[in-house]
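Reviewers of the previous submission asked for a worked example of the structure-prediction workflow described in the proposal, so we include one complete record here. The input consisted solely of the amino acid sequence. No template or homolog information was supplied to the procedure at any stage.
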Amino acid sequence: MGAGDARRQVRRLTLIAALWMLGFSVGTLTHLVELIAVGVNVYDGAPEPVRWFWVSLTVVDPVIVALLLTKLRAGVLVGVATMVADVTVNWLAASAHPALAGPGLVTQPAFLLFLLLTARPLWNSAGATRPRRPRPDS
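From that input alone, the workflow returned the following C-alpha cells.
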C-alpha cells in the first residue's frame, strides 16, 4: 500500500468513526431533549423496564462516544451491543404497544446496519497502531 493509499484509508476510517460518534451523539441529544421536555415520566406508555432502558441511553450513548475516542475497540463492542439491544427493545416495544412506534424503527436499524458493516475495519484499525509482538517461534 502506497503513502496515498494509506492516507485515504486513514481518512476513510476517521470518517467512519466520526459517523459512529455522530450517531451516538444524536441518540444522546434525543434522549436528553425528551427527558428535559417531559421529565422522568418520559416514555410513560412503555413498560417500566423499557422506560429505564431508554432513559439509560442518555448516559450510555455519550460513554460510547468517549470510548470511541479513547478505547476504540471497547467503543466498537459496546456500540454494536447497545444498538442491537436498542433495536430489539424498540421493535418488541412497538409490536406490543403500537403507540410507541416512531421514526427510530427505521433510522436505528439503518444505523445498526452501518455499524455492522463498518465494525471490522474500525476494530482492525485499532490494532494497526500497536506494535506486533514477535512470535516465540521466530
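Residues 3-38 form the longest helix (36 residues). We consider this example representative of the routine output the project will generate in years two and three.
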